[in-house]
Amino acid sequence: MLSRRPGITAVGAAIAAWIWIGCAPLSVFVNDRPDANQEQVAGNHATAAGEQPFFVRYSSSTQTIEIVEDQIRHTLRHEAFDNPASPVPASVQLQTRRATLNAAQRQALVATIRDSGFLDLGPSYGAAEGERYYPYRLEVNLDGRANNVLFRSNPAFERAPQAFSRIEAALTELLGSIHDWRADR
Q1: Long-range CB contacts for residues 17-25, cutoff 8 Å, separation at least 24
Q2: Residue 76 forms beta bridges with which residues?
Q3: What is the pTM of this model?
Q4: pLDDT at res. 87
Q5: Which of 128, 126, 146 shows the shortest CA–CA distance to 138?
Q6: Cβ distance 101 to 67 under 8 Å?
Q7: Which tens digit of pLDDT belongs to each residue from 86-95?
Q8: Which position among 66, 126, 144, 170 has the lowest Cβ density within 10 Å, counted as fewest Cβ atoms?
Q9: What is the DSSP letter of 81?
Q10: Contact, 90 vs 114, CB < 8 A?
Q11: Residue that wins the pLDDT comparison between 169 and 89
């Protein structure tokens, strides 16, 4: 989480985090406000003080999917390399789109999360620290419970937990089922 510095609002920090999508996963919550007596706003939805909205964030090196209540935002990261042997891209382009989930889409995702056992998973799986890996992070806040799981993908180590893979598949299916995407400006 970003530190609370004077002059930096949670919304400003969230915008800065969306602009910078690097190797480190995003960890900014729009509803991170110091005053617990005020209403917290997530997208267009206000919740009672202290109550966290339904929230899902999936991030990898190539995309981020974020859902707050019924609002979904999908960002793709396109990298171009001048030299195919270089690990550093010559240019990076972000393409972001957003949509509103219908009730059936939201309910199906919530049911998958509840049934998967994701909220009971540990903090990390896959390759050991210090090994080469591709990071996949899944953060969920549902029914007053939250979990943040990092899967370090490397074929020489364990596969992602089934609960993680189920939600990943549900998110991929959800992206394909939305037909009214809007470009994020």
Answers
A1: 18/75, 18/96, 19/94, 21/59, 21/64, 21/75, 21/77, 21/94, 23/61, 23/135, 25/59, 25/135, 25/137, 25/150
A2: 63, 95
A3: 0.71
A4: 87
A5: 146
A6: yes
A7: 889 899 999 9
A8: 144
A9: -
A10: no
A11: 169
